[in-house]
From TrEMBL:
This is Putative MFS-type transporter ycaD. One of its GO terms (cellular component) is plasma membrane. The lineage of its organism: Bacteria, Pseudomonadati, Pseudomonadota, Gammaproteobacteria, Oceanospirillales. GO terms for molecular function: transmembrane transporter activity. The chain crosses the membrane at residues 12-31, 43-61, 73-92, 98-119, 131-152, 158-175, 196-223, 235-253, 265-282, 288-310, 331-350, 356-375. It comes from the Bacteria. It comes from Nitrincola nitratireducens. Residues 408-526 are annotated as: Disordered. The keyword Methyltransferase does not apply. Keywords: Membrane, Transmembrane, Transmembrane helix. It holds the Pfam family MFS_1. Residues 460-492 have a biased composition (Basic and acidic residues).
Length: 526
């Protein structure tokens, strides 16, 4: 893992600075908008524009990458992101901010696509797991540390936005100086929702739920904490606890979903998130200690950020291998739709009912998803062969590049780990295991060794034990080299021929003796 990290150090450094700057800038935008007197609904509209830009960027930035290449496209997107925080300070207007956040989301989607495609191109089956693990650690670590920058500055000052701009600019330097060759841009693929709805509706609506609650949390949670009269430093710790928690339970819950029905695990995760969301609602009405708020948000984030990876794993279980890209594009549509409407709806509720409405809205989403997952688990058919769970970051818009490759490398989960006595739903006609193995063996033989139409015996080039024994006896009797070709083709049908009869019937060559030692008769050379 360390050797893999060293080879991609420049890319990880650039990506870490990019995520750190974006985490700081997103929280700053929400807090500064509230300080400037923007209504809660207006703040929700601005943040919804950001996620709309990311949704469009996940679809269309590939054209920019194909036109200019990875390094030039990364430089262009990062340059605008460095400019955007300064423009926010210069033009304090909600409509200007909405347009800027729309472009920000578009550029950030392109930056994430470039990073994941680069990592995927520099990995193989042996190293992709390590690369994905480091990628996740960098993602969550940078996102959490970005929140801590609020401790050293204030959102109502120019310096806070200047720090975000500097971090965006610094993300360019490691990648511009790298000697690693940029990958070839991949062809653009469209989005499709029908394949996903037909094979795994629980995966689609799980992505919608994840996009809705995650976007609402990142956009409006700073406003929630600020309306509860917490200081900027406390808000930074509040957001950091929520972000860091996303890495805690992904792997344990993912491995658990490998052993039991994934939709039941998804329903259990939604139930746990529902409980802690309701505790956050209670926190809004009572002046409880701040450490209880941190514990609640940490437990909530550790469950809520697992919804999308579980939904993606469920889709991978039920999708045909040739349709994985199409069904995964449906995940982007679901997540993007939820991420766009999440800030809009939650901000409207907060404007009408106060800060507690944020987590009430999240709890409602989780309740509906929990019931739907349980319903699908009971009526949507038999269980399918599972693929190994692949963890995935949930603190940004998922672009799926590295995740697709990791899913392709994943292996089926042993059926003994999750078999509950139900038959497995297979997409082909049921046949026995022995017949399947025999069929695969016949195919392998036909592909590698052509079979002679006259002789049906396989492996005709290999000599049987009887043939080798007869050949050795013949060579000993005639005093010839054992490696020479046999004078007659011996078959299994005549293993009892005597040595003398074999020699009498075989043709004589120049190397053979003119006197038959077995019979004592002389023969002429041909």
């Amino acid at each position: 893992m360390l050797r893999t990290a060293r080879t991609l150090l420049s890319l990880y450094t650039s990506y870490g600075l990019l995520v750190l700057a974006n985490a700081l800038f997103t929280t700053l935008t929400s807090l500064r908008a509230d300080l400037e007197g923007f209504t809660v609904q207006t703040i929700g509209l601005i943040m919804a524009g950001y996620f709309l830009g990311m949704f469009l960027g996940a679809r269309y930035t590939s054209y920019v990458i194909q036109r200019g290449g990875h390094i030039r496209a990364f430089a262009a997107f990062a340059s605008f992101m460095s400019l955007s925080p300064l423009l926010h300070v210069l033009f304090i207007d909600p409509w200007v901010w909405a347009v800027l956040r729309l472009i920000d989301g578009f550029c950030l989607a392109g930056l994430f696509i470039i990073t994941e495609s680069w990592l995927n191109a520099r990995s193989d089956n042996k190293t992709r797991g390590s690369i994905l693990a480091i990628y996740m650690v960098v993602n969550y670590l940078a996102s959490g540390l970005g929140q801590l920058f609020l401790i050293f500055t204030s959102p109502d000052t120019f310096e806070a936005f200047a720090v975000a701009s500097i971090c965006f600019s610094l993300s360019l330097m490691p990648l511009m100086m790298t000697r690693t060759e940029a990958p070839i841009p991949n062809p653009v693929t469209g989005f499709a929702i029908r394949p996903l709805l037909s094979v795994a509706p629980a995966g689609f609506w799980g992505a919608v739920c994840a996009g809705s609650v995650n976007a609402a949390f990142f956009a409006m949670a700073p406003i929630y904490a600020q309306n509860l009269s917490f200081s900027v430093q406390e808000i930074s710790f509040f957001m950091m606890a929520g972000v860091f928690s996303g890495l805690v339970l992904q792997i344990p819950l993912g491995k658990l979903s490998d052993r039991i029905e994934r939709r039941k695990v998804l329903a259990g995760v939604c139930f746990g998130g529902l409980v802690f969301s309701l505790l956050m609602v209670v926190q809004s009405f009572f002046q409880l200690p701040f450490y209880l708020l941190l514990i609640n948000v940490f437990c909530y984030g550790s469950l809520a950020f697992v919804i999308y990876p579980l939904s993606a794993a469920h889709v991978n279980d039920w999708s045909d291998p040739g349709q994985l890209m199409q069904t995964s594009s449906g995940l982007l549509i679901g997540y993007g739709s939820g991420a766009i409407f999440g800030p809009l709806l939650s901000s409207s509720l907060m404007s009408a009912f106060g800060p507690a409405a944020l987590f009430a809205y999240i709890a409602l989403n989780l309740l509906v998803m929990m019931l739907f997952a349980l319903y699908q688990s009971s009526v949507a058919g038999l269980q399918r062969e599972k693929m190994e769970f692949v963890p995935q970051p949930s603190v940004q818009f998922p672009v799926e590049e590295l995740f697709h490759a990791a899913q392709d490398d994943s292996s089926p989960v042993p059926e003994a780990l999750y078999d509950s006595g139900d038959s497995v739903d297979k997409p082909v006609d049921p046949i026995s295991v022995d017949e399947a193995d025999a069929t695969q063996a016949d195919i392998a033989v036909s592909d590698e060794t052509p079979i002679d139409p006259v002789e049906s015996e396989p492996n005709v080039e290999e000599k049987s034990f009887i043939e080798q024994w007869e050949e050795e006896r013949l060579a000993e009797s005639e005093r010839i080299n054992p490696t020479d070709e046999p004078k007659v083709k011996l078959t299994d049908e005549a293993p009892s021929l005597s040595q003398a009869s074999i020699v009498d019937d075989m043709p004589k060559t120049d190397e053979a003796s003119n006197v038959d030692e077995a019979s004592g008769s002389k023969t002429k050379k041909p």
